[in-house]
Specification:
This protein is an alpha+beta fold. Helices cover 35% and strands 22% of the residues. The protein binds one RNA strand through helix 7, helix 10, strand 18, strand 19 and helix 17.
Length: 852
RNA sequence: GCGGGCGUGAUGGAAUGGUAGACAUACCAGACUUAAAAUCUGUUGGGCGUAUGCCCGUGUGGGUUCGACUCCCACCGCCCGCACCA
């Protein structure tokens, strides 16, 4: 009897697949195509368990689809531009390019032993000039179509390092290297006109039936369609009126003040000759640019001294305040505040002693607002106070509609639909990204580069030892001829947001070596991505940008109309986590917690301790794997000790795919034991003689149930359920007394059902048991409906909703007869004690409930 | 702050509104073994009871229903995103 030697088996079958080019995707109109894609990785240099889980899921789908007669495209690439490469160059020297490509080599070497069904011939990295050159070409096409433009936008500015900071580089409002307080600063930058597509991107969400509802909801909220009232407050000093936008015009009678953003033109105008105000605005401009930083900053206000007239009552004057929580990007950058029905406004008014006026009260508990704003759902009916349009009891929504209507008729306001979605700023003041292919010419202004000059390649001779963009300080790279007039000119040194790179890579995979961004026949054949798999952290930005890009590429003729929604189905998988072992008895010399590696601790009498010292350890379960917490499990180690099939089996087995899975040594061990067991069963089947000649119908039934349930699990991302079923089937097979021929057939089916998860072991068993060709090319088993039908069912009998007994009845026994049987049941008679049941509920084939 | 999600035995988790705890881990017991490992078999939500059995139990509190892990409301805790991280 041979033992299960994963390393041998896995390399043998990987070679077999490579030899026969099993996973090479070739256009073939005679077969239905299937495009499965996992979000491509950033080349950090180390494959982690999250990658293994992500790619294994995709691989299960890809292999299953191959077995069901599909022509599968399953590619892999690298999202290779970005800050970590620059950070590494700064920290350890070297060049981002070398760092990145060497990491890619390492990761490919780590990925290959997983036995993924990838078409490696299509691989590319976004930092390949062949890729980003095509991206520059797309940018120029977008420019032609008016999909890109320039405007001013705010960035994080480090006043000490004199450089732009990413949000990630701002820690607690300070620059991560200099420690200086971060300021907000305006720069001229490039923008994609994604906001023009707000309505379309919103409406099309409804067509994405195979996307998680939560992702669609998050995108819907992000796009943020709202209907509100736009109108102006006349200034008492006769200057230009202040235009505001509000989604709650119904609360106009509760207005307390008019608020404008610190970036509002009026604020900037007043700043010029008011040093106190200038100081206040400088204070407001401190801190990061994230919405979170702005929303959670302490509320600050400044009374401008300007007053405005209430539109419904010219005698009612409202003060104009500058408030730091008002965003210039949304609406008109000016609001009116209604503190009674908005907590933020209320806090502000209490702080600055501004009036609070109720406009409506709770029907059930009418009491004036004190320190908690009354903010009922818009659908809730409320009691109105002195409403100008005569409302008494009405919902907020009715009042909003009535107010808009009223304002439009009276002519002082207009109902307006607005979106929260802002245009996508793509300029980055960094080296390791795709250069924006434009030239700045003194005579011609901003001029697009000629397509024949693409790719505009990044220079290799740069240094990153000082802050700032090395392209700016390069001695010659900026110098070029103006594409328009030919005079000496300067290249743009900003590069593109890495989100641009990942917004069309899925389309590039359909023709990765083409000299145009895409090729019509390939795009038409392979698009759309039938199944896209990735982390929930990409629910909004990456997916929304990709949806926009697909539309923009369609406009420029690079994608067919049908690819405007590029991802037919989306699945968001959970993380792989691992316990953290934190020393409970001491910290390091700097007072920081000490984290122990899993190998350093053990359990003694139910307490986890450090092996060497016996110190107690706090176990924090299920935490994100992190280098600093010493809880990272390296897939390479697992593959070395157990094999890829074990790693694959485990990451699929213990949790539903959308949820986090905790990596445990015992779980990995269990997976390994199971694969050993299956291998043993297969070798035993061959070794045994004819054995018991009896057929085992129970085993056959179990097999057909397994076929049905495993298939269902694979098709619906219930991989954990598929695996549970495979355990059950394996148990049945191990216990079966069937003939060896019958067991051989069942074992072959077991190998097939396991093959998407454990492809190497399955190929091996298939070969051992005399299967023809490769298991990957064998058709997927089909369940025999006749074997799935049970003749009788067990009906639980509930009394008042609690299970008390059960009866076994023929599957299609009429209700009346079931009722008779139930009433005659000993437990029911005992409980009824002569009384009549109030009600008898029989759900055929399901349950019986006796209500007494 | 805003938006989204999650919460079930010792542990990971299963359960179209219909027997809560499938499957696995861990633990315990047994078989095999000189012994251990491996393997195989069995037990295991908590409590009461000799027992037929009874009571409690899906984060907390309410509600809808013949029946709620599942639907509704409120609360608590944890996680993800917030536009320059990828």
């Amino acid at each position: 009897m041979s033992r299960y030697t994963a390393a041998e088996i896995e390399s043998k079958w990987q070679q077999a697949w490579t030899r026969s080019e099993t996973f090479k995707a070739v256009r073939d109109v005679s077969k239905p195509k299937y495009y499965v894609l996992e979000m491509f990785p950033y080349p950090s240099g180390k494959l982690h368990m999250g990658h293994v889980r992500n790619y294994t899921m995709g691989d299960v789908i890809a292999r299953y689809k191959m077995s069901t007669g599909h022509n599968v495209l399953h590619p892999m690439g690298f999202d290779a531009f970005g800050m970590p490469a620059e950070n590494a160059a700064m920290a350890i020297g070297g060049h981002p390019k070398e760092w990145t490509y060497s990491n890619i080599d390492t990761m490919v070497e780590q990925m290959k032993p997983l036995g993924l069904s990838l078409d490696w011939s299509r691989m590319f990295a976004t930092c390949d000039p062949e890729y980003y050159g095509q991206q520059q070409s797309l940018f120029l096409d977008f420019l032609d179509e008016g999909l890109v433009y320039r405007k001013n936008a705010v960035v994080n500015w480090d006043p000490v390092d004199m450089t732009v900071l990413a949000n990630e580089q701002v820690e607690g409002g300070r620059g991560w290297r200099s420690g200086a307080l971060v300021e907000r600063r305006e720069l001229t930058q490039w923008f994609f006109k994604i906001s023009d597509y707000s309505e379309e991107l919103l409406d099309a969400l409804e067509t994405l039936d195979n996307w998680p509802a939560k992702v669609r909801l998050m995108q819907e909220n992000w796009i943020g369609k709202s209907r509100g009232l736009q109108f102006s407050f006349e200034r008492t000093d006769g200057a230009d009126p202040i235009e505001v936008y509000t989604t709650r015009p119904d609360t106009l009678m509760g207005a307390s003040f008019v608020g404008i953003s610190p970036d509002h033109p009026i604020a900037k105008e007043l700043e010029a000759d008011n040093s106190e105000l200038a100081d206040f605005l400088a204070e407001c401009r401190k801190g990061g640019t994230t919405e979170e930083a702005i929303e959670t900053a302490p509320k600050l206000g400044y009374d401008t001294g300007i007053t405005v007239k209430h539109p419904l009552n010219p005698d009612w004057e409202l003060p104009v305040w500058i408030a730091n929580f008002i965003l210039m990007d949304y609406g008109t950058g000016a609001i009116f505040a209604c503190p009674a029905h908005d907590q933020r406004d209320l806090d502000f008014c209490r702080k600055y002693d501004l009036p609070v006026v109720d406009t409506f009260l709770d029907l059930d508990a009418p009491k004036p607002v004190e320190n908690e704003a009354f903010v009922p759902p818009k659908e809730q009916k409320v009691k109105w106070i002195n409403h100008f349009a005569g409302l008494d009891e009405a919902t907020g929504q009715d009042a909003i509609d009535a107010t808009i209507d009223f304002a439009e008729k009276a002519g002082w306001g207009q109902g307006v639909t607005k979106f929260r979605l802002r245009d996508w700023g793509l300029s980055r003041q960094r080296y390791w990204g795709c250069p924006i292919p434009v030239v700045h010419c003194d005579a011609c202004g901003v001029v697009p580069e000629k397509k024949e000059n693409l790719p505009i390649e990044l220079p290799d001779d740069v240094t990153l030892d000082v802050p700032g963009n090395p392209l700016d300080r390069h001695p010659t790279w900026r110098d070029c001829a103006c594409p328009s007039c030919g005079a000496p000119a300067k290249r743009e040194t900003d590069t593109m947001d890495t989100f641009v790179d990942s917004s069309w890579y899925f389309a590039r995979f359909t023709a990765p070596r083409a000299t145009t961004p895409t090729v019509a026949e390939d795009a038409a054949y392979w698009m759309n991505v039938d199944q896209y798999i990735g982390g929930i952290e990409h629910a909004i930005l990456h997916l929304l940008y990709s949806r926009f890009f697909a539309r923009a590429m369609h406009i420029c003729g690079h994608l067919p109309e049908t690819a405007k929604e590029p991802f037919d189905a989306l699945f968001t998988q959970g993380m792989v986590t691992h316990a953290i072992f934190k020393n409970a008895e001491r910290t390091d010399e700097n007072g920081r917690a000490i984290y122990h590696y899993p190998a350093e601790v053990e359990e003694r009498d139910g307490v986890t301790v450090v092996k060497e010292t016996g110190e107690k350890v706090d176990v924090i379960p299920s935490a994100k794997m992190s280098k600093s917490k010493n809880n990272v499990v390296d897939p390479v180690d697992i593959i070395t000790s157990y094999g890829a099939d074990t790693a694959r089996w485990f990451v699929l087995s213990d949790s539903p795919p959308e949820r986090d899975v905790e990596w445990t040594a015992s779980g990995a061990e269990a997976a390994f034991k199971h694969l050993n067991r299956v291998h043993r069963i297969a070798t035993d089947v061959i070794a045994s003689d004819a054995g018991n000649p009896n057929e085992d119908e129970a085993l056959l039934r179990e097999m057909h149930k397994a076929i049905r349930d495993v298939t269902l699990g694979v098709e619906s991302f219930g991989f954990n359920a598929s695996i549970a079923k495979l355990y059950a089937f394996t148990n049945a097979l191990a216990k079966s007394k069937a003939s060896s021929a019958a067991k051989r057939d069942a074992t072959r089916v077991l190998a097939q059902l396991m093959s998407p998860m454990t492809p190497h072991l399955s190929e091996e068993i298939w070969q051992l048991l005399g299967g023809e060709g490769l298991i990957i090319n064998a058709p997927w088993p089909v369940a025999d409906e006749a074997m799935l039908v049970e003749a009788s069912v067990t009906l639980p009998i509930q009394i008042n909703g609690k299970r008390r007994a059960e009866i076994s009845v023929p599957k299609d026994m009429p209700k009346e007869e079931v009722e008779k049987l139930v009433l005659a049941h000993e437990a029911v008679i005992r409980t009824l004690d002569g009384a009549q049941p109030k009600k008898l509920i029989v759900v055929p084939g399901r349950i019986v409930n006796v209500v007494i």
